[in-house]
Write a structure and sequence with these properties.
Strand content: 35-45%
Number of strands: 11
Order of helices and strands: HEEEHEEEEEEEEH
Radius of gyration: 16 Å
Helix content: 10-25%
Length: 189
């Protein structure tokens, strides 16, 4: 069940990465360092994050992360940092992963719908929405229903919030331990 949980949770990250592939239409955003956090549930249970993994972070690191996410208005969940180098974030043409197909359909210059269909070991479908506000905030909300390879039904809801932090990607956000910032950059979406 844990492997399935992480596999399904990874689909949310795949949705946003699907939106980041170079192709087609673009959304205008502010270049620089962006922080993100993903929170959600699967079958009514909170999705685990690095904050839940025993021994992954010291109590001080957990406290600093939670405080930093709250200061930025991010949900307390799976955090990440990423550098956006240009003012254009490209939306892709339809694409597939090993198990799922994703299609992003812009509604206007700042928002759209994502359709997902999975026909591999994981079977199901989902729909999400994305919206960029003021070039400095973006949200991705999505829901999915399906079944695991063992036939267990799954129902997942997930929200990722992205916030622009600063223009300089080479420096950690104010008040964040540089080693923690490096770890979060490897988790950035």
């Amino acid at each position: 069940m844990t492997k399935t949980l992480f596999r399904v949770a990874g689909i949310g990250a795949a949705l946003w990465m699907a939106l980041g592939a170079a192709n087609a239409q673009t959304v205008s955003v502010k270049p620089g360092l962006w922080a993100s956090s993903t929170a959600g549930t699967m079958n009514g249970h909170k999705l685990p994050s690095i904050l839940d993994i025993k021994g992954a972070l010291t109590p001080q690191q957990k406290s600093a992360l939670v405080s930093g996410m709250q200061q930025l208005g991010l949900p307390v969940g799976s955090p990440g940092l990423a550098c956006q180098e240009t003012e254009s974030f490209a939306l892709p043409k339809p694409q597939s992963t090993e198990q799922c197909t994703f299609n992003a359909s812009p509604s206007d210059a700042t928002s759209g719908i994502i359709q997902m269909s999975c026909n591999g070991q994981l079977k199901g479908s989902g729909q999400g929405t994305y919206k960029v506000s003021g070039k400095t905030t973006a949200t991705l909300d999505w829901k999915m229903e399906g079944t695991t390879p063992q036939g267990t039904p799954i129902k997942m809801e997930q929200t990722t919030v992205y916030k622009w932090v600063q223009a300089d990607c080479s420096q950690p956000p104010k008040g964040l331990d540089p080693s923690l910032a490096e770890m979060l950059k490897s988790n950035g979406r």
